[in-house]
Amino acid sequence: MTAPAQSPKQLVLLGAGHAHVHVLSTLAAQPMPGVQITLVAPYPRQLYSGMVPGFVAGHYALEDCVIALAPLLKNTGIKWLTRSATGLDANARTVTLDDGSTLSFDWLSVNTGPVQDRDQIEQTMPGAREHGLFVRPIEAFGALWPQVAELAKTRALRVAVIGGGAAGIELAMAIRHGLRSSSVTIISGAAAVGANYTPAVQQRVAKALKRRNITVLPDMAVGIQAGEVLLGCGARLACDVPLIATGAQAPAWLAGSGLALDGNGFIAVDACQRSTSHAHVFAAGDVSTRVDRAIARSGVYAVRAGPALANNLAAAIAGREPTPHQPPENTLNLLSCGDRQAIASWGRYSAQGRWVWWLKDRIDRAFIKRYARPPLTPAGDMDSDGAPANRR
Ligand SMILES: Cc1cc2nc3c(=O)[nH]c(=O)nc-3n(C[C@H](O)[C@H](O)[C@H](O)COP(=O)(O)OP(=O)(O)OC[C@H]3O[C@@H](n4cnc5c(N)ncnc54)[C@H](O)[C@@H]3O)c2cc1C
Q1: Superfamily classification of domain 118-244
Q2: pLDDT for residue 376
């Protein structure tokens, strides 16, 4: 008599964000016996946001900025569903997909990133859904931007970047460089431009924007209509391209998941990247918040979370204890200024110049190159943490 074959355990990877790209790259070399892995990721490739301003400025083709998923999955036995999750029931251990189907899991890892919640933004900025160009999903933005660039060849465009955070700053300067005849205005809202940076970096940013003739309006955008943005002060700003680069939100489908969430609706995780309410659920990157440390959401943490997540998933599934992941206190933050100049900051230190751009370009290209190749061998050449140095 032979024992009945055990059905494999199901591990579902939701999203192909920075951390999961690393997890995928390790799975060919370190398979998980007895585990069926399913990746749910809607796009065939991951667009690396750090290089998107360079793409807009015209320094890179879109293909330079992407990590294709198919080569990472080759020979891994991983099943790939080109779908988005629209619901999650952590107690029932099921994920609902955008075709209405349901996927069961024993273990789940979430790395779907943040979203720009259209409903929420529409409430504070009526007309945004119809007239605005959203930076997220970044893959959709990357696909749409060439149409704006084509239009700019026919006439000078008036571009309004709504949002004065890092993405808004970088995109404004990139547009100024890429669409030379167009005018660019940043509508910065209640906070100062670059409010998350030190005063020294804010000064550098303000000077860089001024030198590039980018106007900053410290006002709220309260509505968008065809050809104009409505401002909180009552004025109207003539605008052909309202680019919405306001902060990102937690995906709405997490709300009914049963998972413990933080005050902003992101998945609450412990030091081992595990849900504080459901030990069989892991999460990394911008979709999660580590409860014992106030960590700003940014690409750097998403990237650095990858190697730890790969180890922790393998450990948990094998019945071992996962290991705490210690993100760095300070990270090198590089803000590109459009014209092959950039501003660097590290803690309270800052610098700028062409060499900073050169450094950012090298680091970003190296990151893409690491994953845009066949899967790693066990003795692969990845850094101990696999992370590029420049993510903010
Ligand atoms: C223009 C711009 C420039 C930026 N530049 C930098 C920079 O230079 N440095 C930096 O540190 N940060 C930068 N950021 C911030 C950075 O993009 C985020 O912090 C980072 O992307 C978060 O990584 P992540 O892996 O958590 O999620 P993401 O990179 O957003 O990846 C999430 C993945 O999940 C997929 N997904 C989404 N929803 C679902 C779903 N429902 N089901 C299945 N899959 C889903 C997405 O398609 C995507 O592939 C920038 C942001 C923007 C908008």
Answers
A1: FAD/NAD(P)-binding domain (3.50.50.60)
A2: 45
